[in-house]
Amino acid sequence: QVQLVESGGGLVQAGGSLRLSCALSGSFFSINTMGWYRQAPGKQRELVAGITVGGSTNYADSVKGRFTISRDIAKNTVYLQMNSLNPEDTAVYYCNALISTVAFTTREVLGQGTLVTVSS
User: What is the per-residue burial (b if ≥16 Cβ within 10 Å, else e) of 58-69?
Assistant: First the structure.
């Protein structure tokens, strides 16, 4: 069974930093892309950052210059370094992966989510 396990959420004061981690486990052929989404109370889920198999990254305008996505290919893990956090960053953060299965189909995997709370 392929699954994503996230960690690193918590409570932080405005201006602080957190680092989220997400590890993909199970049987799969390859990882195409990985990324982070977030969903704040009463809002739709939005893409925060993504990273491709080639290492290209993209960010939501609201987090550019503050958040950095990176990966450890050997560990099938993606990270989200979040700096200069503000209360508007409060949300449940979900890790996402687009993988190629051993049957050579494409599948999206979503983590269970980790709560980030930024106090003012």
Answer: ebeeebeeebeb
pLDDT tens for each residue of 29-59: 899 999 999 999 999 999 999 999 899 999 9
What CA dihedral angle connects 90, 94, 96 and 101, to 10 degrees?
Answer: 180
**Exposure on the CB side of residue 47, measured as CA atoms within 13 A:** 14
At 20, list the tokens. 């989220």
CA distance 95 to 2: 13
Q: Which two tokens stand for residue 101?
A: 């299965």
- What whole-number distance in Å separates Cα of residue 5 and Cα of residue 19? 14
Q: Identify whether the C-beta of residue 98 lies closer than 8 Å to the C-beta of residue 33.
A: yes
d(CA 21, CA 29): 21
- Strand, helix or coil for residue 89: helix
Confidence of residue 104 (pLDDT cuts 50, 70, 90): confident
Angle CA(108)–CA(114)–CA(117) in degrees, nearest 5? 140
